[in-house]
Structures are given as structure tokens and as C-alpha cells.
Amino acid sequence: MKHKIYTILIVTFLILSTLPLMNLSRYTHPSADDYALSVDTKKEWEENHSIIGLLREAHNVQERWSNSWENVYTSYYLWALQPGIFGERYYKLTGFINIAILGFATMVFFIIVVKRILGGKVYQGIILGSIALIMMYQWMPSAVEGLYWFCGSVGYNLFWALSLLILSGIILYSGKKTDIILGIFLVLGGFLLAGGNHVTSFAGMIAFLTAGLWAFINKQRKKGIVCTLVLAATFIGFLFNVLSPGTTVRSNFFPDKLGVFETIWLALENGMMAIEEWVTLPLLLGIILIMPIVIGLCSKYIEEHNFKFRYPLLVFAFSVGYLCAMFCPTLYVMKNTGGGRVRNAEYFTFIVLVFINCIYFTGYALCKLKEQNINIFSGWKDKVPMKYLLLTVLFVGGILIWPIKTSNGYQAVQTVILGDAGKFSEEAQNRYELAMNSQGEDIEIMEHTVKPEMLYFDDITGDSASSSNMYYADYYGLKSVRLKYWSELE
After folding, report:
1. What are the C-alpha distances in Å from 65 to residues 37, 39, 109, 354?
2. Same domain, 102 and 210
3. Which residues share a beta bridge with 446?
4. Overall domain count for the chain
5. Three-state secondary structure of the chain
6. Which residue among 171, 204, 309, 363 is buried most deeply as judged by most CB within 10 Å?
7. Do both 305 and 445 map to the same domain?
8. Are residues 428 and 293 in the same domain?
9. How far apart are CA 451 and CA 420, in angstroms?
10. pLDDT by position in tens, the chain (length 490)
11. 326 assigned to some structural domain
12. Domain residues for 482?
């Protein structure tokens, strides 16, 4: 009963804190690459309303862009099918889609880790997953690129989530005949992951390699083999990506690339700076919230398996190295750490690694206490004292009054209350109606008077011949379009 109350409190807090983010999705509109990558599928749907024809055209988009730009073959399919092609109003689903993607993968991962590795119960996995999601939703570095811009968000969130689901599947895989279908899906998932983006596919390969080595060391031969197959599929897809003509074209836009050793050094430097930036009061409060569950899990695991948790520093060093490795692809190609969508994927990984380290270090500490015959948490494997749960909730709830103002949920509420969200959406809707009523014509659209940080990503320019303007014009059937700046009216 005590655990049920604690679970309900945490899940309720997750839901309530996510509602403002869902509400803000009502004010979203297409932007930037949304037009360029879905203009042909939009035309196909408007002309024929055929699912088969739509998928065929999405394939054509994938082939065309893969040969002329970066060959992220899986992403092109998704981008070509952004919800706005079915009607501008459906673009508002973008925020809900991203929240669902992150929520599903994170919750599944922690439930499987808790049940299959630690021998815990579903509710414990739900609590860990819920608190991790609160950290992700509320303090991701860029909400606009993480939730509200389709091309930027789905192109990273979905593949970060896919890598987490593949790892969850590897944990579940036991080598039985009934697991053959699971193994096939894992291998297919690895190939699809490689076609998402370089950051999550590169990190995925490191994770699959590590999982495979761990399986072979622990004499789990069949699991090691499936990890090897997943790694091979991801690596083949990765090579298909980076060696394609389109990726070569994009690579030529960044001729002055870093050397391998310089890339590694800068990745370590930027990774360490990111860790310093992300170790915040909300994260520390989140750790306090998971500790009742973590102590119970570790206490039970130590008692049942006599596991010693001997290598906390090795786990910590690997975690830091893994996170830093995610900075390598963009540094090597572009000499920078990438946009907010890249930083979001790195931040999500950071949160998961922090929780894993909390579990391992707690286990290590409990083993040391046990060696000294100090068993102050001996009864926690079955139930956590109610007074501790209440004190934890009250303590965290009281301190959260200040950092909550830095959360995305708070910013979303402010954006709506101040009217910026409504004004931005109204102006975007007026643009849309002007474009739909002016097909085949040259038009000018006014610059936005408000540009909310959580909703505004990019805009067309004052040059009707720029690529962004041409894709916008083609998307809405215009002859041409240009942005008229307010300064021109002065």
C-alpha cells in the first residue's frame, strides 16, 4: 500500500508536469526543413489521398535526398510523412508524438532493467522511469527542437528511443526458440537506427558492442551472438550512410575537418562541460526521489545474488566516456557540437547514465556497510518506511519551488499566459491562410512580432530566391514568397 501511494504520487507529478507541454503543442506550426522534406508527399496526398501512393512518394523523397544530401535513409521517410501534410492543423500533434516516443521507450527500459536484471517489481521500474522522464521533459536543453519542431525532434528523439528499446530487447533475449522473432526485430532495429542520425547510431554501436562483450564474458553465448548481429546490422547501415554520394556532398560543406585525436580531445572537453552544466538542483532532487526504490532494489539483489558491485569507478569512467563519445560525430564533421536536438539526445543519455550509476554506487555502498555489519537498510528490500517516503516527497516538493521556474513546463505556462503563444500561432495561421488564398502568385508575409523560444525555430528570408523561401513557396503552391521585415516599414 505504501509503495502504491508513492507510485501514484510520482506518476501524478509526471502527468501534471507534462500537461503544460502538451497544451503548448496546440500552438505549433511547420518550420524550416518541414517544408523542404515533405513538399512532394503533401502534393501526393492532396491529389490522390492514397496511402500506397504516399508511401511510394516518401520512398522517392528518401532516394532523392539520400543522393543529394546526408544519407539518413530512415529519417527521410519520417520527415516526408510529417503530420502537417494531412492538413496544417495536424502539425499540432508533433508535441504529443515526441512526448509519447520518449515516454514509452524510457518507461519500457527502466521496467525491464528493474524486473529482468535487478529482480524487482513493475512499480519500481515505473517510479524510476517517471522521475527520469520528469528530468527529460522539464529540463531538456532545447524544447523547440525536442518537442515542437517535427524534423528536428523526431529525427533524434525517435532514434534515441529506438536505441533504448533495442537495449531493452537485448536484456529480454534469452536465446530460446520463441525469441527468434525478437532477435530479427533487434537486427532490423539496428539497421533502421543507422539511418536515423550519426550521433545515436554511433552511440548505439558502442552500447551494442559493450552488451555483446558482457554477454560473452558471462557465458551468455546466444545473447552475445544476437548483440553481434545487431552491431553488424548497425555498422553496415552506418557505412551505407557515411559512404553514400549524398553524405559526401554534405561533408564537402565542411572541408576543414578535425583530426581523430583532436576530435576525441574536444569530445572529452565538451562532454565534461556538459556534465558540469547538467548536474543541477533538480537532478539532485530527482536522485533523492529514486533513492528509496534504489536502496530496496540493491538490498534485495545483494541478498539474493551476493553481488558485490566491485567496480563503481569503472562504471563511472565508462559512463563519462560513453557520453563524451556522443560528441564525436558532429565535432569531427562540423567542428561544433551540433544543434539543440543533438544536445537533447546527449542529455537524455546523461539522465539514464546517472540513474544507472546511482544504482551501482548504492549497491557498492550497501556492500561496504554489510562488511561492517551495518544493516540500517536491511528491511528496505521488501518495503520502505512510510515516514521516509513522506519526508522525501515533502522535502523535494518544498525545494522544487525555486528550480521549477527553470523547467520547460513553467516556461510553457508563461508563454501561454503572456499571450506570446497565441499571438505567434495567430500570425502563423494568417500566413497559412494568405498562402492558401494566393496560390500561383507572388506574396510577401510579415515577420513575426513575437518569437517564443519554445515555439519559434526558424523562418524564411527576405530573399525570394533563397532555398528556404523556394521550398515554402512550393509547399503552398505559390509562385514566390519573401519575408517582409518590420524595419522596412519604418
Report:
1. 8, 13, 33, 37
2. yes
3. 484
4. 2
5. CHHHHHHHHHHHHHHHHHHHHHHHHHHCCCCCHHHHCCHHHHHHHHHHCCHHHHHHHHHHHHHHHHHHCCCCHHHHHHHHCCHHHHCHHHHHHHHHHHHHHHHHHHHHHHHHHHHHHCCCCHHHHHHHHHHHHHHHHHHCCCHHHHHHCHHHHHHHHHHHHHHHHHHHHHHHCCCCHHHHHHHHHHHHHHHHHHCCCHHHHHHHHHHHHHHHHHHHHCCCHHHHHHHHHHHHHHHHHHHHHHCCHHHHHHHCCCCCCCCHHHHHHHHHHHHHHHHHHHCCHHHHHHHHHHHHHHHHHHHHHHHHHCCCCCCHHHHHHHHHHHHHHCCHHHHHHHCCCCCHHHHHHHHHHHHHHHHHHHHHHHHHHHHHHHHCCCCCCHHHHCCCCHHHHHHHHHHHHHHCCCHHHHCHHHHHHHHHHCCHHHHHHHHHHHHHHHHHCCCCCEEEEECCCCCCCCCCCCCCCCCCCCHHHHHHHHHHCCCEEEEECHHHHC
6. 204
7. no
8. no
9. 8
10. 567 788 888 898 899 999 999 999 999 999 988 999 999 999 999 999 999 999 999 999 988 888 877 788 999 999 999 999 999 999 999 999 999 999 999 999 999 999 999 999 999 999 999 999 999 999 999 999 999 999 999 999 999 999 999 999 999 998 787 789 999 999 999 999 999 999 999 999 999 999 999 999 999 999 999 999 999 999 999 998 888 877 777 777 776 778 889 999 999 999 999 999 999 988 988 898 898 899 989 988 988 888 889 999 999 999 999 999 999 999 988 888 888 999 999 999 999 999 999 999 999 999 988 888 777 665 555 566 666 666 666 666 655 566 677 899 999 999 999 999 999 999 999 999 999 999 999 999 999 999 999 999 999 999 999 999 999 999 999 999 999 988 777 6
11. yes
12. 424-490
C-alpha cell recorded at residue 1:
500500500
Q: Please indicate, yes or no, whether residues 320 and 441 belong to a single structural domain of this protein.
A: no
**394 and 470 part of one domain:** no
First to last CA, the chain: 67
Q: One-letter amino acid identity for 394?
A: L
Q: Distances in Å between the alpha carbon of 394 and those of 6, 136, 385, 469?
A: 12, 22, 15, 53
Same domain, 181 and 201: yes
